[in-house]
Amino acid sequence: QKEVEQNSGPLSVPEGAIASLNCTYSDRGSQSFFWYRQYSGKSPELIMFIYSNGDKEDGRFTAQLNKASQYVSLLIRDSQPSDSATYLCAAPSGGSYIPTFGRGTSLIVHP
Amino acid sequence: KAGVTQTPRYLIKTRGQQVTLSCSPISGHRSVSWYQQTPGQGLQFLFEYFSETQRNKGNFPGRFSGRQFSNSRSEMNVSTLELGDSALYLCASSSGVGDDTEAFFGQGTRLTVV
After folding, report:
1. Among residues B65, B87, B77, B61, which one has the least CA distance to residue B17?
2. Contact A32/B45, CB-based, under 8 Å?
3. What Å distances lie between residue A72 and A26, A56, B13, B70, CA to CA?
4. Contact criterion met (CB below 8 Å) for A111 and A95
5. Residue A41 and residue A45: Cα distance in Å, rounded?
6. Closest residue of A to B95, CA-based?
7. B45, A98: Cβ pair inside 8 Å?
8. Are B62 and B80 in contact (CB under 8 A)?
């Protein structure tokens, strides 16, 4: 069973700090990685995707991929209370492009 | 352009009944995937349809089935409902071709089985 693992949290950070969310995956064949944000009672929303080793930046969000170590992370700079949500990591695995989701990390940004 | 539309948003059913959920993908997207989300199990993949054919299937019993129409709209059916089927059912739309694998979710259908 190919796995995508995340710490369930909650991860609590003060407003303005950097929130660091981590994800590990077991399938070395995975080529693409996605971060979704899910507010309570809402559906997941795609916020970042990354295919290549290294960093990808989009506004306050930076995704980092290290294929050798099989981890992908999401950094949120200048965290805001509105960033409080569950963040889901996903990666296609098992030769399929259907993403396997981690169980998500709950992020709480307190004022 | 319009997003992914799921109907109905909420459903309450009793054990033993069956239910049909609907999903209209983003215009031009041919792949529709269905997921079950529960607090205990997270987001679990049910199946994926592409061009009216089931292309991938997760590890759910045969009570869960689906289909896709020529306009890419998809339906999911659950027969003989059990209490454990209570969950948020999400569909995801993607192009389903090449390396373009980004999936966009609908608002979900909250199913409660009593």
Report:
1. B77
2. no
3. 12, 11, 40, 37
4. no
5. 12
6. A97
7. yes
8. no
Query: HEC profile for B76-103?
Result: EEECCCCHHHCEEEEEEEECCCCCCCCC
Q: Which of residues 34-73 of B touch A (CB under 8 A)?
A: 35, 42-43, 45, 48, 56
Cα B101 from Cα A90, distance rounded (Å):
11
Instruction: Say if CB A73 and CB A21 are below 8 A apart.
Output: yes
Could you read off the pLDDT tens digit of each residue along chain B, which spans 114 residues? 579 999 999 999 999 999 999 999 999 999 999 999 998 888 999 999 999 999 889 999 999 999 999 999 999 999 999 999 999 999 999 887 765 568 899 999 999 999
Sequence-separated (6 or more) residues with CB below 8 Å from residue B59: none
Phi, psi of A37 (to 5 degrees): -110, 135
Tokens 């709950």 correspond to A106
Query: How many Å apart are CA A23 and CA A72, to the nearest integer?
Result: 5
| Beta carbons within 8 Å of B21's beta carbon, 6+ residues apart | B6, B7, B8, B11, B75, B76, B77, B78, B89, B91, B109, B111
> Side chain identity at B90, as an amino acid letter?
L
Q: In sequence order, what are the beta bridge partners of B43? A: B37
pLDDT, tens digit (0-9, with 9 covering 90-100), for A68-80: 999 999 999 999 9
- By Cβ distance, the residue of B56, B103, B104 closest to A96 is B56
